[in-house]
Amino acid sequence: MSLISWLKERLFCDIAIDLGTANTLVFLKGKGIVVQEPSIVVVNRQNGRVEAVGKRAKEMLGKTPSGVSIIKPMRDGVIADFEVTEKMLDYFIKKATDNRGFLLRPRIIIGIPTGITQVERRAVKDVALRAKASEVYLVQQPMSASVGADLPISEPTGNMIVDVGGGTTDIAVISLHGIVFNHAIRIAGNEMDEAIIQYIKKKYNLLIGEKSAEQVKIQIGSAYPLDEPMTMEIKGRDLREGIPKTCVVDDQEIRESLEGVISAIINAVRIALEKTPPELSADIIDRGIVLTGGGALLKNLDKRLREETQLPVFITEDPLTTVVLGAGKMLDDLDLLKKISLI
After folding, report:
1. pLDDT digits (tens, 9 = 90+) for 38-94
2. Which of 107, 235, 305, 324 is the most exposed place for a label (fewest CB within 10 A)?
3. Could you tell me which of 156, 183, 146 has the C-alpha nearest to residue 316?
4. In whole angstroms, what is the distance from residue 165 CA to residue 290 CA?
5. Are the beta carbons of 112 and 140 closer than 8 angstroms?
6. Domains annotated on the chain, with CATH
7. 282 to each of 3, 77, 91, 341, how far by Cα in Å?
8. C-alpha separations of 112 from 143, 163, 321 in Å
9. What confidence score (pLDDT) does residue 9 get?
10. C-alpha dihedral (95, 100, 103, 109), degrees to nearest 10
11. Whole-structure pTM value
């Protein structure tokens, strides 16, 4: 490695972050995505020390002793616990940079939901600054996802993106570097997990945890009937007898449990379509709807949305990483970043 390359690597460390309710992703300029872990922190209540972050913390869900708390510091796409979010962000930044000391503090781009308040924006910015950022740019997640999905956002044409995350579903119509209309609801992947927990509890008198509900959603969850029926064995605690119990559920049951959440997301898309200016509506008829975010991985969600709206629906290549990849591209295009970042 030449001296100039070494100096560049030691001097500059620009970072893009998708600070999500369910997962946090970190993109390091020149390296790509270097961190993709759950937004979970395990804290020792007696001394306030962080015991685990990310994947390791998620493995501990429902298994910790009384003196240890599992904290999800992000709720509905915004900071619910300022201090823990700062520790989590600091941990992920250090992990992304291999704990190397950099001569200049990094510029950080953070993707945020469209529906958050000025106070919530300020909180996100403050957390990043306290985590040693030199400059912080906030970019709305649908805008960042549009860049990640290579949509022609600079042209005078309407692009509709639906970002189904862990805590929020963000729907935006984008044209000429700006969001013409957006509609966000705080219903997304986490509500799907909760709906499964409540359904199993009511129908089978079986209590399952968040981790189990998420596995059910991933393996047999769907928004529209599947070509081949699927079943899954789930384990939990019998609420009547208080002992461990196993039962088998099928995809139709899980689809039924998710119906309320799916309907709310589709209704939000309908509201956005109804309020989109007519000229841009014509573009959306031609271009269709782009679906992204972890929730886009729910089986046949695109098919259900297509049937309900009668519009073409496309899923991005990797829905989980589209937002952070878009923010990462902006690290190389400061002109674009200045046009679309929030003040």
Report:
1. 999 999 988 889 999 999 999 998 888 888 999 999 988 888 888 898 899 889 988
2. 235
3. 146
4. 14
5. yes
6. 3-38+76-143+323-340 (3.30.420.40), 154-187+264-316 (3.30.420.40), 189-257 (3.90.640.10)
7. 54, 31, 46, 27
8. 10, 11, 14
9. 47
10. -10
11. 0.90
State the Cα–Cα distance between residues 26 and 123, nearest whole angstrom: 19
- The number of residues in the chain equals 343
For residue 263, count CB atoms less than 10 angstroms from its CB and return exposed for 0-12, middle for 13-18, buried for 19 or more. middle
Residue 310 has a CB neighbour count (10 Å cut-off) of: 7
The alpha carbon torsion through 164, 165, 168, 169 (nearest 10 deg) reads: -10
